[in-house]
Specification:
Length: 556
C-alpha cells in the first residue's frame, strides 16, 4: 500500500506533503511553523482518511510521525514524537528589547543627571554669594538647560514623532524584521505588527495616510493665515502630487539591469503613487471646503461637534466615496467569481474560486491596468494563487482617502480646540472608541468570519476603521506626553520623522548594499537576522539625526 500525508490550513484544500510506501519506509519533509496545520493520512488513489490531527509545529524542532497498521484496512494507528525540542526563537528578540530599553534609559538619565549637576552648581554659587563671574564659570558648558522661560515650540512634535516611529518600524520590517513572522504582513485577512504600522504611515502609505491628513489641515490652515491664495495652494499641491507620483513610478520600476524604467516588469500602481493621489484629493478638499474661520460660540446645540458640522461638504464627499467602494466591492459582477467575494482565491475557500483573488478589486485593476500590477502578493505563498493582485490598486485607494480624512479630522480637532487640551484628548478618545466599535462589528472580532474582514491588501472598511482607532489612540498619547507635559522630546524617532521621504527612498534603494545588509552566514538562526535588521534601521536613524543637525530636510 502507498500512503500519502496531506496538509491543510484553515479553509484550504489539502495539499500533498509526502508519500510513504507500504512497509518500513521513511520520508522527511519541512512544514510551516506559523499557523496550526491539519494533517491527514490517506491511501494513494482513495478519498479515505486513515487518521487526522492538528498541530502547531514549532521552529527548529524535529518531529516523527509513526504509522502502524495491522490487516489493512482494519486498523491504522498514528502517533507523534518529538525528536529535537524546539528552540526558544524569541530569546534574541528579548535580549534586543532589553538592550534597547537599557540604551533608552541611559539616554534619559544622562541628560537628566547633567542638568541636575548644572542646577546644583548654580544653586551653590548663588547661596554662597560668589562673584558674578564665578557663577558664569560654574555654569559654562551647561547650555541653556537652566533657562526655563524659553518659548514653547509651535510645531507639534507628536506629529513628527508619530511619523518617525512608524517609519522606523517600517524600515525594520522591510529589512526582514529579524526573520520573525510577526513582523511580516498577514497573508490575507488579519493583522500583524507590519500591518499595524503601514496604515499609520501610509507604508509611507498606511500609518502615514492618517498623519498626512492631519498635516494637510495644519499646513493649509497656516498658509491661509499667511495670505496664500487658493491659486497658489492649487499650484503647490499639484506640483507635489506630480513629483511624488513620478518618483514613485521611477523608483518602483528601477533596476540595475534596465536602468531608470524597467520595461520588462513595469508596474503602474505603487506606494508613492497612492500617497501622491491621496494627498492630492485631501488637499483639494481642504482648499475648497476646509478653509473656514472658527466661529465664536453662540450656545448652539451643535457647538460640541462644530469641528464636524462645519465641514459637511467634506463629509458628503467621503460618504459618497465609501458608498462607491461598497457598491463596487459587493455588487460588481466579476466573471467566474461570486459577487462580493473578498477571499484570496487559489487553494483558499476549499479551492472553489482559484482565479478570484481579491474579487472586484483584483478584477478592476486587471481591467484598467492589464498586467502592469503586482505579481507577488502576500497571499501567493500560503494560498498558491496564480493571479496577480496589487495591494496599492485602484479600489483600495478610495479607502486610503477615507483614512486620510480621519487624520484630517484629528487636525481639525487640534485647530478648533487648541489651548483646550482636555477637549482635544477627549475627542481623540471618542473617535477611537467609535472607530474601534465599528471595526469590531464589521469583523465580528474574528479574522475570517466577519461581514467585512480586516484586510490590508484590500484596504477593507474594517481595516481602516481599526487603523483609525489605533491612530487616534497613539496620537493622543504622544500629544499628551510630548506637547502637553513635555516629558519626551521624541528622540530618536523625531529625526526620521522630519526627513521621511529621504529615509524611505534611501533605505529602499540602498537596502541591499553594505553596510546596511550583507550575506548572512547563520541563516537558520534569528540572531544574525535580527542584528542585521536592527543595525540597518539604526544606521538610517543616525543618518536622519546627522541631517537634522545639519538642518537638511528633503521636501517636495
Amino acid at each position: 500500500m502507498k500512503e500519502s500525508l496531506m496538509q491543510s490550513r484553515v479553509q484550504c484544500l489539502y495539499q500533498p506533503l509526502v508519500s510513504v510506501l507500504n512497509g518500513p519506509q521513511n520520508a522527511s519533509v519541512v512544514v510551516s511553523t506559523v499557523l496550526t496545520l491539519t494533517l491527514q493520512l490517506q491511501p494513494m488513489g482513495r478519498n479515505t482518511t486513515l487518521c487526522s490531527w492538528s498541530q502547531l509545529y514549532e521552529e527548529a524542532a524535529h518531529y516523527s510521525v509513526w504509522i502502524q497498521e495491522s490487516e489493512y484496512p482494519i486498523n491504522v494507528i498514528c502517533y507523534q514524537t518529538v525528536d529535537v525540542s524546539p528552540s526558544n526563537i524569541y530569546f534574541p528578540l528579548l535580549v534586543a528589547a532589553l538592550l534597547l530599553a537599557l540604551i533608552s534609559l541611559l539616554c534619559v538619565l544622562v541628560p537628566y543627571l547633567y542638568r541636575r549637576r548644572c542646577t546644583t552648581k548654580l544653586i551653590k554659587t548663588i547661596c554662597h554669594g560668589g562673584p558674578q563671574h564665578a557663577m558664569d564659570d560654574e555654569t559654562q558648558g551647561c547650555g541653556d538647560e537652566v533657562n526655563t522661560a524659553q518659548p514653547k515650540p509651535t510645531r507639534l512634535r507628536s506629529l513628527d514623532t508619530f511619523r518617525g516611529l512608524s517609519l522606523t518600524i517600517m524600515v525594520f520590517v522591510n529589512y526582514g524584521g529579524g526573520g520573525y513572522w510577526i513582523f511580516e504582513h498577514a497573508p490575507w485577512n488579519g493583522l500583524t505588527v507590519a500591518d499595524l504600522v503601514m496604515p499609520w504611515w501610509v507604508s509611507l502609505q498606511r500609518l502615514f495616510v492618517f498623519i498626512i491628513g492631519t498635516s494637510v489641515v495644519l499646513a493649509f490652515t497656516s498658509m491661509q493665515k499667511k495670505g496664500v491664495s487658493r491659486r497658489q495652494l492649487i499650484r503647490k499641491l499639484t506640483w507635489r502630487t506630480v513629483v511624488l507620483i513620478l518618483i514613485g513610478f521611477c523608483f518602483m520600476n528601477y533596476s540595475p539591469k534596465d536602468g531608470l524604467l524597467s520595461w520588462s516588469w513595469l508596474r503602474i500602481p505603487g506606494v508613492l503613487q497612492r500617497l501622491g493621489f491621496t494627498y492630492f484629493i485631501l488637499s483639494l478638499m481642504q482648499t475648497f471646503c476646509g478653509m473656514r474661520e472658527i466661529p465664536l460660540s453662540r450656545d448652539r446645540w451643535w457647538d460640541p461637534v462644530q469641528d464636524v458640522v462645519l465641514y459637511w461638504p467634506e463629509w458628503i464627499i467621503i460618504i459618497l466615496l465609501e458608498t462607491l467602494w461598497l457598491c463596487l466591492t459587493f455588487l460588481l459582477p466579476v466573471p467566474n467569481c461570486p459577487t462580493g467575494y473578498l477571499g484570496a482565491g487559489g487553494i483558499g475557500d476549499n479551492g472553489l474560486y482559484p482565479n478570484c483573488t481579491g474579487g472586484a478589486a483584483g478584477y478592476i485593476d486587471k481591467w484598467l491596468l492589464g498586467d502592469n500590477i503586482y505579481h507577488w502578493p502576500t497571499c501567493k505563498a500560503m494560498y498558491r494563487t496564480t493571479q496577480p493582485f496589487d495591494p496599492e490598486g485602484v479600489l483600495g485607494t478610495i479607502n486610503s482617502i477615507v483614512m486620510g480624512f480621519m487624520g484630517m479630522q484629528a487636525g481639525k480637532i487640534l485647530i478648533f480646540y487648541r489651548k483646550k487640551d482636555v477637549n482635544v484628548l477627549s475627542r481623540f478618545l471618542v473617535w477611537a472608541i467609535l472607530l474601534g466599535i465599528s471595526a469590531a462589528i464589521l469583523s465580528k472580532c474574528t479574522r475570517d468570519e466577519g461581514f467585512i474582514p480586516v484586510n490590508k491588501n484590500l484596504w477593507s472598511l474594517s481595516y481602516i476603521t481599526c487603523m483609525g482607532c489605533f491612530s487616534f489612540l497613539l496620537l493622543g498619547v504622544m500629544y499628551f506626553v510630548m506637547d502637553i507635559k513635555g516629558w519626551w522630546g521624541g528622540q530618536p524617532f523625531i529625526y526620521p520623522g522630519m526627513n521621511s521621504i529621504f529615509v524611505y527612498v534611501g533605505h529602499s534603494l540602498l537596502g541591499s548594499y553594505f553596510p546596511f545588509s550583507w550575506e548572512m552566514r547563520f541563516v537558520d538562526s534569528h540572531w544574525e537576522k535580527l542584528f542585521q535588521s536592527l543595525w540597518a534601521t539604526s544606521l538610517w536613524v543616525l543618518i536622519a539625526f546627522l541631517l537634522y543637525r545639519k538642518k537638511f530636510f528633503l521636501k517636495i
